[in-house]
Amino acid sequence: MGLAIGSGQNYRGWMSSDEQYPGDLDRALIEKMSLAEVEEVLSSGLEIDTASVTFLPPFVGSSKMICVGLNYVDHSAETGFKVPDYPTVFPRFPSSLIGHLAPIIKPVSSDQLDYEGEVAVVLLQGGRYIPQSEALSHVLGYSIFNDASVRDFQLRTPQWTIGKNFDGTGAFGPSLVTADELPAGAAGLSITTRLNGAVVQKANTNDLVFSVAKLISDLSQTMTLEPGDAIITGTPAGVGAGRKPPLWMKDGDVCEVEVEGIGVLRNTVRNEQANGRLGSNETGGRVVEHS
Prior knowledge:
Shape: globular
Helix content: 10-25%
Strand content: 25-35%
Number of domains: 1
Largest sheet: 11 strands, mixed
CATH superfamily: Fumarylacetoacetase-like, C-terminal domain
Radius of gyration: 18 Å
């Protein structure tokens, strides 16, 4: 296990076996150390060759991962839903998460595996009844999420949770970019999803129905948000289920989600084997981007 900091191709950090290792990127670390302290420790570390490491999801141990549905007008239209007046939310569970370059697993039980490129928000501070005007001060940073969805299971029940939590379908990464490196609320960023090199989704975060600040404020009216909680902000139009004929991901496909200023999340699709989920995220590292 390791933790690194940097940008572009230049990263430094420590392995968990090193005395200087500050800890995993989780709630305990961000409550124990300031970002400046984490940066100082990691910047003095060893040079990291990212081509030789295994990427893990950039943040671990969120008490809540809250996904937002129908948060782009054009996506609501393509799926036949009314644009919501209030955020449509459902959970993602840790057992579904994988990192950058890990395989997205197409389950044996379905051929309707769909892509959803999204921006993820990780909170530095929690709270209840957070005013929208103060909400962005609670953000630690941003990452990329591919909310790969098993559509036939998603639509078997009125709630979408079951189709959103198959093992190996929640791709998260490659790094966590601290909030000071991006426009406030990650506004104005282009978001593009490519399947086998072809652009299938292209939008801008300015098109969100509910902004990052609005989501934080609204969610805090019903639940106490906590440090490390993640909010997955929704996907734009172009999903496979909205196409005629539908476009489902299959074994060997390569799906990339690119968000301006954050990076590219890349995963290859693999069929589930008889013994279950492929791949392992038990060893590897997490990356923070901060200058």
